[in-house]
Amino acid sequence: MVSLTIHGIKLPLLPGDVSPIIWQALANGSYEAKEARWVHKAVKRKDRVLELGTGIGVITSVIAKIPGVQVWAFEANPTTAALAKRVIDANGIGNVVLSPGILAAGEPRSFRFYVRKDLWMSSMDPNQGPYEHEISISSTNIDEFLTSHNINALVMDIEGAERDLLKQAALPGVERIFLELHDHLYGLEGILDITQALAAKGFAYDPRGSRGPCVLFSKDDGPREYEAEAADAA
After folding, report:
1. Pick from 141, 185, 191, 209: most CB atoms within 10 A?
2. pLDDT for the residue 23
């Protein structure tokens, strides 16, 4: 088995486990590079984090290495979730609870999920591009999950589904939301929907932890951990 390391995370994967495009991104270090850098500015020590769209578990593992953090991670595609488990286990990470499935606002219901060759393109949108097959997945109520697990930080990369989720969910207890925007799927109108919905819930766009499509929305106005560390170094 080929063993790569990316963003400090060991990847016990074979080229056939992912598409050639993703394997190339893993090999050259560009895979989720922006997320890996900026998530450190969104997640604080001892946060209780919900991650949606785990993928192969790279960002999950990066988050889990922040001291005192507990992570609950969800990946819709069972095959991809199995790869994520392999990555998490290979890195000796014990503070992640990984589950296959979807969290959504409202009562549990069935969603169609479209599996594509490039796993980062798999989504609930049938119009996003050609897909290999579709699966049916039952959702779990996100607000109930947030409350029952005392989640205070939300991280997500869910290929456009963030638009409806952030509009419809109440997000109780969440202080910070770090997500990748997908303007190629819903345009500036969708970004406006997201920012207005989060503003109505008390979240502000936080430039201290945002870069391009990887954005942080915050309620708390205290210093990030990295700001405190920079002050100490000075």
Report:
1. 209
2. 93
pLDDT of the residue at 113: 85
Q: What is the CATH number of domain 32-233?
A: 3.40.50.150
* Average pLDDT over every residue of 21-43: 93
Res 225: pLDDT: 55
pLDDT recorded at residue 121: 76
Rg over CA atoms, the chain: 17
| Domain locations in the chain as residue ranges | 32-233
